[in-house]
Amino acid sequence: MFSKVLYGQGMSVLHPNPQQPADQLDRRLRRMAQRVGSMGLFVVPCVLGLSASFGHVSWIDLAASAADMVVLGAILIAALRNQHVRSVLYSGLIFLFVIFWCVSFGELHMGLTNSTSFALVLFVPVFLCLALDYRLLAALAPVQALLVFSYAYLYTAVSGPAGSPAFEIVGSVYAVLSGIMFSLVSILAWIRQSTDDELILALNEKERLASTDSLTGLMNRRAFMDSLNAFCATESAFVVAFLDLDRFKPLNDQFGHAAGDAVLREISSRLQAVPGVRAAARLGGDELAIALDTSLSGAELDKAVASLHACLTRDIEWDGKTLSVGVSIGYATNARDAQSLPTLLKAADTAMRRAKAHQIGWASFSADRDGAALDTHSPEIEFRSALARGDLRAAVQPIADAGTHEIVGYEILSRWTRCGLRQTPEPNEFIPIAERLGLLNELLWTTLDETLQSGHLRAQRLAVNISPAQLQAPDFVDCLMNLLKARGVDPASMTLEITEQVAYRNIESNVEMLEKARRAGMTIALDDFGTGYSSLSMLDRLPLDKVKIDKSFSQRSGSSDRSDSILRASIRLANQLNLTCCVEGIETEEAARKVRLFGADEIQGFWVGKPILLEDSRLLFKQAS
Ligand code: C2E
Ligand code: CA
Ligand code: CA
């Protein structure tokens, strides 16, 4: 239905368009024709001049040379103009072959032969036909043998007794030799041609792979950009649409990457089934882009994109499960929305981000609504409204007992979901932004409240990350206590994870705030131990109950004895100071076993569990319990 609404005639150029082998063979043939034409036009006058200097030039030679030059000129012109190269080259070469034999028989008839004539009729035709196709060479082999035999016969008739047994033997030997020579050249040409064909096919396959996304078979970013550049040069109007899948990450997390791959493949094949999609590409991750060929505009185009959206968001059956993903589409037309390709892409991208941020499915670029965003769109601008909209969500990562591997608590981490930006910022990108905007505490209340409200983690030990700026608010601990009280949570189940940066500025007031939290029963943990400048002195200066040894230590452990010694010493130091010691970044069972032997109390890392959005964790934890 979509196709009926949107497109007049279907065009399907979904794959990159590497040069066909035929194109490349034609180019090779053209180069060969150029060489034959130019070399011939040089050689023929040279030979004629040489013969003249020995006084051997007859009128036949002159006429034949003139005919040769005409033929060679025609071959060269065809090659330069790239017109009918194959037919002109092959028929020209056969013509040269015919001219040569006419001259040879003519001279024989006129008694102008000499001792070299026989050698010439054996070798010159082979030389003339070297550039011919192997099939033509094979066809000419018996002709050449017959002509040599006839030549030998006439030659003997002119200069000796024809029909003698000696002549018949010699003539036949020459004829057979000549035919064999042609056949050998034909075989060599066949070998050369088939090797070239194989090479070209291999090169084409390499080119295809380099421009194709291996998972979906769509173009990759580079090939897509090449196609768009080609459209810009040839088309007056086309539409570029950016597509970004919604809820893709949770789907991947919940069902695994195989499910994610299946979704991408299915969406891609649905895209490919739409006639009028001139180019379709996977730009990376869950981002796709298409170029549409359309004569529609305005409301009709909107309607057509709406049905494309409906088609792509249909449920997907996979492995007995029903998977559901959303797609946000933004599109722009080169004729209406942008003068240049980069602006067109930016316009489609901006429209897509608006569609995603407002969860409206699809949006066409609008100068009024997207114009400002086109220039100023950035995480800084988006963050405040995203937080207000509830797009910043809590993720939780389990922390386990190092000996029993039982979950002893969860760390709360922030995630920016439903982000309308091209790339969803990671915590390491948006936490500094939140800090600049003075919104870190807002963020903490939001994510902590989400966790406490959700119920299934309320009774667990919970850890939150606290940046130095957050402690600057004089009512920080009071606000935190109020929130915990409102949700009926014991402050003793809370851990505040701080970094040594709290000691870099305003250390007295920060320490006072931490002491207050501690008095209320909370645990204070020094996070990322070992990554700062003065981790050791922090153990003395800050009121601490726990140390979290940074993941870089466990990840380097095993690479050398020295790394292991550092990890062991850090753990022992924490033990001796009576601090609970948690090692981060545990990605394998072996690492977990090792840090246990070194004396760690707790472990955290992908092996124990990856951070998972709270809203997705409910199911998981239910399954685990
Ligand atoms: P962090 O406190 O050290 O949190 C642990 C980080 O390491 C998380 O990155 C987590 O995804 C990652 N991680 C956990 N286990 C493993 C592992 O086994 N291997 C590897 N390679 N990585 C692992 P994430 O979530 O990107 O957070 C980065 C940092 O951002 C956090 O480091 C924390 O300092 C900060 N952060 C995150 N959310 C908040 C927040 O709400 N408020 C504040 N103030 N800071 C936050
Ligand atoms: Ca942390
Ligand atoms: Ca950490």
Can you describe this structure?
The chain contains 25 helices and 16 strands. The protein is α/β, with parallel strands linked by helices and 625 residues long. It has 3 domains: 21-206, no CATH class; 221-370, Alpha-Beta Plaits (2-Layer Sandwich); 379-624, Alpha-Beta Barrel (TIM Barrel). The chain has an 8-stranded mixed β-barrel with strand order 8-9-10-11-12-13-14-15, surrounded by 7 helices. Strands 2-3-1-6-7 form a 5-stranded mixed sheet, with helices on both faces. Strand 12 (523-529), helix 21 (535-541) and strand 13 form a beta-alpha-beta unit. Helix 4 runs antiparallel to helix 5, helix 4 runs parallel beside helix 6 (134-159) and helix 17 (440-454) runs parallel beside helix 19 (476-486). The two termini are 48 Å apart. 35% of the residues are buried. Mean pLDDT is 85; it is low at 1-19. Bound molecules: ligand C2E and calcium ion (2 copies). Ligand C2E is lined by residues 397, 413-414, 426-428, 431, 440, 443, 447, 465-467, 497, 527-528, 551, 585-587, 605-606, 611.
